[in-house]
């Protein structure tokens, strides 16, 4: 699975570079590379949502859609920003859930600080 992920990253960079060599469009190259860096950053942040499995799976699906939207931009020059930034919704929802319900580690931290005397 890790080899497949590395292969997808390399193929995406190769496609962006080959499209740049063909069109010589520097603006499109920079936008594509910045967007791809953002998608990779969101993929790294996906481990944050692993505690809530449905949210994690939704985040992975949205990452795949944003990668496909990047490929669509490289070849068709149509930038769907709402698809590209959609994984941010799952991260924001996770942070909202953590804020509302808490992480569940507060009690453990409290009991670690309390010193209990042996009777």
Can you walk me through this structure?
With 119 residues, the chain is mainly α. The protein is built from six helices and no strands.
Shape: elongated
- What's the number of helices? 6
The span between the termini is 54 Å
Estimate the mean pLDDT confidence.
86
The fraction of residues assigned to DSSP E strands is under 5%
Structural class: mainly alpha
Q: State the helical fraction.
A: over 70%
**Rg computed from alpha carbons, rounded to a whole number of angstroms:** 20 Å
Element-level helix/strand string: HHHHHH
Query: The biggest beta sheet, please?
Result: none
* Count of extended strands: 0
Low-confidence stretches: none
Concise synopsis of the structure shown:
This protein is mostly helical and 119 residues long. The protein is built from six helices and no strands.
Summary tags:
mainly alpha
Tell me the layout of helices and strands.
Elements: H1 2-23, H2 26-44, H3 53-76, H4 81-84, H5 87-101, H6 106-113
Helix pairs in contact: 1-2, 2-3, 3-5
């Amino acid at each position: 699975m890790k080899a497949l992920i590395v292969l997808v990253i390399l193929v995406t960079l190769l496609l962006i570079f080959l499209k740049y060599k063909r069109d010589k469009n520097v603006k499109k190259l920079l936008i594509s590379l910045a967007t791809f860096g953002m998608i990779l950053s969101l993929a790294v942040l996906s481990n944050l949502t692993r505690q809530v499995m449905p949210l994690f799976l939704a985040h992975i699906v949205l990452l795949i859609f944003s990668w496909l939207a990047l490929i669509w931009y490289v070849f068709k020059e149509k930038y769907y920003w709402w698809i590209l930034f959609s994984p941010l919704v799952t991260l924001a929802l996770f942070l909202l859930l953590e804020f509302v319900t808490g992480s569940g580690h507060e009690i453990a931290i409290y009991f670690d600080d309390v010193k209990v005397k042996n009777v």
